[in-house]
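Consider this:
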Amino acid sequence: MKAIVCERYGPPEVLKIAEVPKPVPKENEILVKVRATTVAVADSRIRAFRVPPAFWLPGRLSLGITKPRKPILGVELSGEVESTGRNVKRFRQGDEVFAATLFNFGGYAEYICLPENSAVAMKPRNTSFEEAAAIPIGARTAFYYLKAANVDKGKKILIYGASGSVGTYMIQLAKHYGAEVTAVCSAANVQLVQSLGASKVLDYTSPDFVSRLEKYDVVIDAVDKLEFSVGINAVKDGGVYANITSPVKSIAMMLSKKKVLVGVDIPETSEGINQLKDLVESGVLKPVMDKIYPFEQIVEAHRYVDTGRKKGNVAITV
């Protein structure tokens, strides 16, 4: 089968199309013919090995010394079940599914084997394969962070990086929960975030951005670009600050008297992804699609994501 392999850490050009053995499902696995995957920020970061300096050595030991230990990237996907292991009960041949593969990767291939009890579920009926592939990582991250921050009716929430994958899902979910959403993005994305449910929008490039901040019950940095001192100062007493990309708390975070959320546990099980399926089918959530590239243009897709200007999600048709 064809797969895109990451031969070493570096720019998008390190990604190559290669022939690799087609996997065979174990007793508890399903074999999925991949129809679509995405270029998630996680894929871009792992390919380029962009990690905080303090995590350089642990990162290399975990991911691979000179190149990714798991060379086929791709942390989310959708497709069709081609066959099942003999102990599989939840799925059968022909089922359309979508899945997160954040710990094992593998979405950049024509086929992948997934454990039945992993983060895989039936594809939402009202989505294309490309849209379904863009749900598992961004939407699950938004779902679990909002849950951990106890976002509910009447709370004021600030989302920094609101036009990205996680941010666009957060706006929709927070609005669904009854929160008042202030979105932070560039001027070019104001209309987009308003259409998703943001009550107020702030342009982070504006000279008076910081002075326009109010006090919020929850402040969420979805792109790790909001200065911590600015973000935490905008949190009400008893409120919550969250950074979805920071793996551990910094000294400043640990010294803060306000609640700080980083590294929220997002289980690799079917429960969360099934809840997202229901929210998509009921019209609460809709994936925001920026660009869709063919499999052969994976390098161009990674180049685009590396610019940091994507709106919502970038998908790959396999």
